[in-house]
Specification:
The protein is an all-alpha fold. The protein has 2 domains: 93 residues, no CATH class; 160 residues. Helices cover 66% and strands 0% of the residues. The chain contains 8 helices and no strands. It is globular. Bound molecules: zinc ion.
Length: 255
Amino acid sequence: MIFLNPIILIPLLLCWGSFLNVVAYRLIHDGSIFFGRSQCIHCHHQLAWYHLIPVLSYIFLQKKCAFCKKTISWLYPFIELFTALCLYLMFTNVPAQFWFGYFIFFSALMVTIRTDLETFMISRFATLFLLPIAFILSYLEYIPLNLEQVILGCITGYFFLLAISSLYYWLTGRVGMGQGDIELLSLIGAFCGIEGWWITIVIASSLGSLSGIIFLFCSGKKTTKIQIPFGPFLAFGAMSYVLWQTPLKSLLLAL
Ligand SMILES: [Zn+2]
């Protein structure tokens, strides 16, 4: 299929990643998603089309705004590249029937990764508000779950993480997990079912703990009170489940 040719598909996906950056930024900062031309977040100068080429503009502008010379966040090229990579893998690994459903799911996850990395916040527009869309996609058979599995997935995912988070708070008096993470696992449950969110949690908590240890080791800090956003790990776990569920199931269920 010509669409799957990487020379055509990757640039399109990089542009989509660039759009998701804008969605994420505007969800957090001003709320209006689709209106207004792109401008520098520091000096508000309107940007020309050649300042907006995914990844390349970041390199050519040497990570700085062309007008005020303030630093452009590394999150822009990171989200563009990560979106292109994950969606490319999705299109080449998943049956064509489910492309549309998972395209929406992966895009929502990218937005949560960006907002959580930038501000430790996950917008409900990218999680809970998309649950009705999961119901519709399931009804249209655009995701491989029936309506019952979608509903059970989102409810159990939500209450599982709520229980863990409440227990942690009760034991330590500290907030370990944000409400955004709980709502994100609910979305993941809707698109991946109970088995899917369970495998996602296993991947996310393993990688999250590992990164915490590496961070503590490298930074030399002697504290357990570091703040690491959990949303990106959940998003990564969920995408891994969609892409490689057969090998992941045989690996994790064998343990
Ligand atoms: Zn500027």
